Amino acid sequence: MAHFAKLNTQNKVIAVEVVNNDIATDETAGIEFLESLYGQEDGINWKQTSYNTWANTHLSGGTPFRKNFAAVGGFYDEDADGFYQTSPYNSWTLNSTTFIWEPPVAYPTPVGDEVYEWNEQTQTWDAVEAE
Predict the structure, then answer these.
(1) Whole-angstrom distance, CA of residue 21 vs CA of residue 129
(2) Domain map of the chain by residue range?
(3) Low-confidence ranges of the chain (pLDDT < 50)
């Protein structure tokens, strides 16, 4: 199945639709099908996205496509031709290769079954009890 992200004028992902591969033989055919189904809306754009791509890596060993699978609420960057989520914290930066948000301090190496959560105020990883 082929997946397509519906984008608004700010390139925010507002929906992800699935189209049968027999119809979406390429991106253009998939977009034409979706526009015939939903109509051509002003300010709406469609981009194909790969369910098998995460962190600019294809999970089955193939060629990654548009950095990450599009998610509702995320965004599409035209210049980089990639999808990314919203930042989980103001201090994190978007990795320009993987298009994954990274903290300013690396995740610590767990000791035993320790789990950590990000503390934005102190900009540190705090140990928390595993649930």
Answers:
(1) 45
(2) 2-86, 87-131
(3) none
